[in-house]
Amino acid sequence: MNDNIADLVDSRTGRQSRSIYASEDIYRQELERIFGRCWLFLVHTSQIPKPGDYFRTFMGEDDVIVIRQKDGSIKAFLNSCTHRGNRVCRADRGNARAFTCNYHGWSFSPDGALSGVPLENEAYFGELDRAKFGLIPVPKVAEYKGLVFGCWDANSPSLDDYLGDVKFFLDVWLDAMPGGSALLGETQKMVLGTNWKLPVENVCGDGYHLGWAHAGAMAAVQSMDLTGLSVGNSGVDLDGGLSVAGMNGHMVLSALDGVSGYAFYPDPKPILEYLEANRQTVIDRLGEVRGRQVWGAQVNITIFPNLQLLPGLNWFRVYHPKGPGQIEQWTWAMAENDMPEAVKAQILENQCLTFGLAGLFDNDDGDNLTACTEQSRGWRTAQMDVYTNMALGRSGKREGFPGDIAAGLVSEHNQRYFYRRWQEHMMAETWAEVPTYNINSLTEQEAEHA
Amino acid sequence: MRFERIGREPDYSRYMDLKEGWLDRRIFSDADIYEEELYRIFARSWLFVAHESQIPSSGDFLTTHMGEDAVIVARQPDGSIRVMLNSCPHRGNKVCFADAGNTRRFVCNYHGWAFDTAGDLKGMHEEYCYDNGDIDFKNHGLKNVAKVSSYKGLVFATFNGDAPSLEAWLGDFRWYLDMILDNEEGGTEFIGGCIKSVMSANWKFGVENFIGDAYHAGWTHDSGCRSMNDGMPFPPIDMENSYHASVNGHGWEFGTEGVGDLVLLGRPKVMDYYNKIRPKMAERLGEMRSKIFGSVASASIFPNVSFLPGISTFRQWQPKGPMQFELKTWVIVNKNMPDDIKEEVTKGVMQTFGPGGTFEMDDGENWENCTTVNRGVVTRHERLHYRCGIGRQIEHDTLPGIVYRGQYNDANQRGFYQRWLDMMTHDELGKMPARPEPQLGNVAETRDLPGLFAL
Amino acid sequence: MLDRPLAPPPVEVIVAVTQALHREARLLDNEDFEGWLAMLGKDVSYRLELKSRRFRADRSPPLPFGPGVIFNEDLGRLKMRVDRLKSGFVWAEDPPNYIRRAVSNVEVLATQPDNEVRVHSVLVMHRNRIDGTTRLLTAARTDLWRGEGQAWLLAARDIVLDHSVLPDSNLNAFF
Amino acid sequence: MTDTATLERTREGTTASLELTHALTQTLYREARLLDDEHYKAWTSMLAEDLHYHMPGIETRYRRDKTEQVTDLTRMAYYNDSKPEILKRLSRLETGTAWSEDPATRYTHIITNVEVELTEKADEFRVYSNFYAYRNRNERDEDSLIGNRIDIWRQVGNDFQLVKRRAILKHNVMLSKNLNIYV
To answer: pTM (2 decimals)?
Structure first.
């Protein structure tokens, strides 16, 4: 399989075999080597504020419960009873003092301990070693400024090292304002007949599709009062933004105008006032570049493998794989806690207009992703290639920013890095074989490679 | 018959340690293991196919499945019963699309090949188009299974010509089976019709639940117990006088209080009926069995039949892939019961263990989640706990089989998975150990019903 | 919601409102969006929510801010959505998806003021998609309709989907 | 033992008045909404004391097979219930321990093709209808039950009570793990 994987992707020329979107075998290996190895997003601390608050999610296809502990820490467990394997929790979220299995009534406390066994004396004569039958914990759970991640692999780098340079951009949402960040509202869940990598690559780097695929949505929002904001990505504007990669597999697209994230708002006034009023605070906290240029701009951040957050546009999304040809897409709205309620309300309202389940933009993407997946399934098509070779070899370092950077939002620089990271993980037997590269460790050869 | 597969030959013993009391979850979700089960278990076991009362007259038939193979079960003019593949030897089309009925011929829709109820090819559409020598009618009938046999109304069949006799297969479990099949003069019958439903669960979860899992009843079915018994919860279990008994992978868990299942049926008239015949039952079956009948109890016949003595539901878990089965539900009653008692039993079963029943509704949810949660690659490698009551085996004067004291136990489940492992690892069934060695020899009450024959 | 008003509206009103619902479904099926917009009140509120599953006994307070809103529209924003559909650039709708709406269980209940009625109905949306498959969406609707002259106009609609995970790749459709 | 006497169509051309048709149609819709919203107390108040609620289990059989599958009450049935029996089933939900109903299932009953007829009894009416009942639970569990119903409704004051219902599910194998629903 490893040799095979080596042939499937060539990130130097920007080529991928379509079989990576269709093969069942490759998918199984992804579950093991990518989802079983990487740090995966679990929950935002704002979603489970109190002890006993829990949130159900997936790590790959494994069903997990993430629970706030009495001491305020967060733990995660497989959502599966150690007795017969039944799901112990079937609600999406809530607050619980215990999780009790429907089948035989074994109950588990929020710290995962087996706390109750019906008829323990009658049936087990008190001989059951409870300590051995707690819920199976996710061995590593860590938080970065509100974002909680979990990882199955004992040999993985720390979350801090895993994120590496991308924290520079994450902080633009997580740490711009003193109050920190939050996710708003319920989870919007949708089934999409696409391989999980296609939506990731779409948002991690594909500025190219915007003007075409979303022409209808653009036409509709252009009837709004844009108050003269430059979107910067409906044409090729090499000065308007950056494609940043080379950060341990994480990618960022960023406009540099400090306001374009709110370009699609019918009435951007309240948010512009908020930006204006707090601009200096953010510059003081994050410096001139991030405070003036990035905060408020459209920024797409992709945390490898399946998390994407877009401060500015304010949507936050996780893709859960469900087989090679299907995902569940979970979306929330993002906000800063310092935002006035009216601004938060506006964010929610505009999310449902643009990137919610029935959003004007979102409605354009689903069918493209689905068809790309389906068109890779045929015996002949699966042997064919697809290309991410736009603007090859035009990247480098840029003052004030981390990463290997290509100019503008329309290039395929980030996608190449995404598939390269995918290949590195798929070929590595263990974490030790997965290269680490942040800007400072990027060799010349690697820079050229990109 | 020997089945050879080209696929992998894993060491199945690494999926469980029954002395320690654990199972690997992959046996509930892995597609390769499932394929192997179809060959090694379903193609080689004696499988329940019908109750004789479902096809009383010559030409009566029903269709069912043995593993995933579709078969026809048909009553012959001489009263015997044949079981054959429901597939035309010409192009493989199904030849019978009905669930049940009466016929003289099974005629294929495609080219009109016609077979009698024994499966013999009798003719076809435009027969003249075959030249002499093109076709040998004798060798192009519906493929009969290797053996058919019946025990007190229950008809079993097997694809395996080397299978031991049905008597040996059931072994001393017949001592227990007689409690439902022979507790009254006249034997048993099925109520007309069959209710079928589909669950996204592995077939073994249903079987193991009925074979020994009294433990789930008080919890899973708290709501069902309370609704059927005027708000009272599941009755306390007398761990001294209740048992698990396992024979060759079949199992029966039971109390000896005589009323528990009858109470949960929620039909006082049925309870009265059994109490009335109980003295006679004691004469037929002996004191011990007349005390067991009607108690809190459940049972399974290896590999895929289950029933509740007293509650009278009788069911089969038909495998449809590693993560799906089709559940067929019937009601079994004594032939000599008056009509109004039969009606009470039928209504009681459908109110408790039909798809809309107060008990059944909670089971499916559990089995589905036990199965589907194993989609996760991390989850499916975790073990499950099957150790309950592991040290409570006893010798009992009256009760045959491997007997454990105490109804809350995983003993029968361990017995079932031991048999599963035996079949998965033995190429020759003859070399498979009896578990345990027969204790009763020829069970005195065993008798043959007309229609018994073997090919 | 359980309380039935003592005096049901006149049969004529119930028939007229039921006809309005059927007409509305037909206009949408035929993609006559202008015709549909004309059936909406100027102050129309149009909402569709997706709720997470919680245990019945869960006492935790509702989420701090806003529910899982998929549509939360006024007339202007609905017009904006229609503008997009009519822009000619919505590739996901070209060739068109065939949608058939079955409206049923139309219960018309009296309310105050007199010229308004509360209407419960259920909707099955049968959506034959470009990929050849059919998606079925079912929803319960609670409406407020207002009589203005001869016409009945939709003043408010709350839609609750039966699904917790949307089984389709987009929602280019109105319920 | 068959039970067809009051369900069979007795007279042709006994179509009910517009008002009556309308009132019964609204009653069916209200009943469906109560079931959707799990208002079972309110629903059972719409059931007559002498109710008979029947949903037969139907096998696939050849046309020439004259076995009476629908009206023979001695055969297997999903429901063959009196009102107390229905109440007994529903009492499961009041125990607080019906684990599989928590979190709740989401239901929609779609009732259509409503026809109302007069019967030989002045206060009882025969109502034909079709149902499409959709269920969604857990993440993506979903199924649809489709079939037709023949009811007898009795006028009691200004309201109607369900006296008889035969609901015929058009499934051979029910494509679901249970039937936690009334149609």
So the answer is: 0.85
